Structures are given as C-alpha cells and as structure tokens.
Amino acid sequence: MTTDITAEHVNPAAPRSPYATTKRGVNWEKWGWIYMRVSGVLLVVLIFGHLFVNLFLGDGVSQIDFAFVAGKLSDPFWQWYDFLLLTLALIHGTNGMRTIVNDYVAKASVRRILHTALVASTAVLLVLGTLVLFTFDPCPAGADPELVASFCEDIL
C-alpha cells in the first residue's frame, strides 16, 4: 500500500495552506522581482551613459546650461533616452517603496492608502516628466539669444 497523495485524493473543499506552492493567477511578486533586476541593469547603463555625455564629453559640467539642455531635448533620440530613464527609474523606485510598505506596514487599510499614494504620485510624475520631455520648446519666443541654443538664432 502506498501513502503518496495525488490530486484525486485531495479534498477540494479543504482550505488551502498559506504555504501552498501552487497558486492560481499571475504571481505579481515574481514579476516585480524580475522587473527590479532587469530595470536595475538597464538603469545602470542609462545612468552611466547620461553622466558620460553630460559630464565627460565636451567641456564637462561647465557646459550644462539652458542651451545645452535645449539642444539635447530638441533631438528625438535624447527625448526617448530620457523618457526611458524617467520611466524605468520611477517605476523601479515605486516598486521598491511598495516592497518596503509591504514589509513594514501591518494594517491592511494603511497599506492600501500608501499603495494608492505611491501609484498616484508615480502617475503624476510620469505625466509631468513626459510633458516636459516631449513639449519642451528649445527656442522660446522673446528669449535672450545668448541663453538659447545656437540653432535658435535662425528662428529668433
């Protein structure tokens, strides 16, 4: 006589153990963990690229002014580069904060409020950051020609 338990011997009406290894639905914790590792690697590459271009190429930190930023944000490549950096960093940070809230907040109602605040603040920052990146006017009307990018002189 064998004592192993198979699926046909399990009582479906019995409550599931909280330590059960099989769970129905999407495992959000697993995907959050995977996202943190992948986005972390991408963020390291993007951040060091950002620092290299802004601090080491050209005249270094002394070159960063409105004209420098305007010149970068007038190029679609840098708009999308900065958008990817913004999006990955905000979601990465939000997921980290979500993990901290889950680990240290015992009351479900407080945890729900904090999760809602995290999602709302992340959404607002993503929208505002995206608007700045994609609607930025590198040649504002009436600007001092010494402060704007060199390509704006033809427009002003």
TrEMBL record:
<feature type="transmembrane region" description="Helical">
    <location>
        <begin position="34"/>
        <end position="57"/>
    </location>
</feature>
<dbReference type="InterPro" id="IPR000701">
    <property type="entry name" value="SuccDH_FuR_B_TM-su"/>
</dbReference>
<dbReference type="Pfam" id="PF01127">
    <property type="entry name" value="Sdh_cyt"/>
</dbReference>
<keyword id="KW-1133">Transmembrane helix</keyword>
<keyword id="KW-0249">Electron transport</keyword>
<comment type="function">
    <text>Membrane-anchoring subunit of succinate dehydrogenase (SDH).</text>
</comment>
<feature type="transmembrane region" description="Helical">
    <location>
        <begin position="113"/>
        <end position="136"/>
    </location>
</feature>
<keyword id="KW-0812">Transmembrane</keyword>
<keyword id="KW-1003">Cell membrane</keyword>
<keyword id="KW-0813">Transport</keyword>
<keyword id="KW-0349">Heme</keyword>
<keyword id="KW-0408">Iron</keyword>
<keyword id="KW-0472">Membrane</keyword>
<keyword id="KW-0997">Cell inner membrane</keyword>
<dbReference type="InterPro" id="IPR014312">
    <property type="entry name" value="Succ_DH_anchor"/>
</dbReference>
<feature type="transmembrane region" description="Helical">
    <location>
        <begin position="77"/>
        <end position="101"/>
    </location>
</feature>
<comment type="pathway">
    <text>Carbohydrate metabolism; tricarboxylic acid cycle.</text>
</comment>
<keyword id="KW-0479">Metal-binding</keyword>
<dbReference type="InterPro" id="IPR034804">
    <property type="entry name" value="SQR/QFR_C/D"/>
</dbReference>
<protein>
    <recommendedName>
        <fullName>Succinate dehydrogenase hydrophobic membrane anchor subunit</fullName>
    </recommendedName>
</protein>
<keyword id="KW-0816">Tricarboxylic acid cycle</keyword>
